[in-house]
User: Fold this.
Amino acid sequence: MRVAIGADHGGLPLKDDIIEVLEADGHEVLDLGAYEYDPDDDYPDLAAPVARAVSSKEADRGIILCGSGVGAAIAANKIPGARASVCHDTYTAAQGVQHDNMNIICLGSRVIGPETARAATRAFMGAVMDPHPRFARRLEKVNSLELESR
Ligand code: RB5
Assistant:
């Protein structure tokens, strides 16, 4: 898969670990920064390019890293078509895709270490949406909410 990744200064410590695991698993990585530590960078500036890449289908999935994962998810979900969530365990990372068609995972490098982040990334990348109609029905309702807010 083609995967876009971005990190603010809070998430930067994990970025190379995640890129390494993605490349080891054969994914094509689109690194959208930050490329160096800047304590004054702002998470929306790093989250939005990832969400736009996923929304435009330039990337199949996205990964955004910040200190907690929360700001990244809030910012990403403002881009239509982005379905982002903080996932700090493998169950949530996989089920978020299977049931909710999550297309962006947000990780907090101040909350989890590299091994858990790698495992959550692998669970996210390896999961596919469950074709059961109830999940499609719920996704349609989520899409309606997005249209309502435009
Ligand atoms: C940056 O200091 C931090 O606030 C940010 O990375 C993130 O945790 C926000 O949710």
